[in-house]
Structure prediction request, 280 residues.
Amino acid sequence: MASSPAPHAVLQLFPPPARERRLSGLYLGESLPEPAAGEAPFLYANFVTSMDGRIAVAGADGVSRLPAGLTNARDWRLFRELQAHADCLLTHGGYLRALVAGTLGNILQVGLAADGEDIASWRADREMTVQPAVAILSASLDFPLPASLAEHRQPVHVLTTAEAPRDRMAELRAAGCEVLCVGSGSRVRGREVAAVLEERAYRRIYLQTGPRMLETALRDRVLSRLYLTLSHRVVGGEQFDTILRGGPLGAAGTLRLRALYLDRPAKGEIGQFFASFEPG
Prediction:
């Protein structure tokens, strides 16, 4: 009888000493603090980037998409393991529009894929909710609500500004969402997001958002940890997105390496680093 393939392993480079680690379960075994009531929640983010800093590149139609080959099954596995820790997933209106349009896949539920039973069991063993809550950032409220949120009975919180359309607020409330006007400016800020979600007893919040939220989380010093997959390839392209927008961050952008793993490529594959950082 043929033997099963050996579990995929990565090489831990930091902290030393260097050693082999099994990929599956690598981030389930991460130490993600669960702050006590009244303490700031643990906000963490994850990005996949090329060596030249691309996370998305605009095509001929002007629409930004993930570059082909930038992600793979190993990175996808670790993304889902990070989801497992979350009490709340933080997303934004642009992602929901892309999801309903079919240009991006659904990342609003945890442990539903055929190879994700252990992730669902991991949450159940820790007496977590079957699915995390979802918080949606949007100033315009111009987004559809995916049917999967109601199907899985996930609490939905919409974080917007005082300038948002009142009629759309009413529609979202009628659909079962909690709509919150957070702050007084034209954009929701990281400190305001952290505060309102802490009030709702969410302790670990996974930022499944884009560059703008990462910027404000760093600038407001509410980001607890940044996970980064660095693909060993250069993408190019003149119109692209990178992990950050906005002006210089100064000291708020200082990060300290927490862990670094080398995912060595098999024949025909592309290698990558898995890294995590904390504010320095």
The chain has a mean pLDDT of 92. The chain has one domain: 9-279.
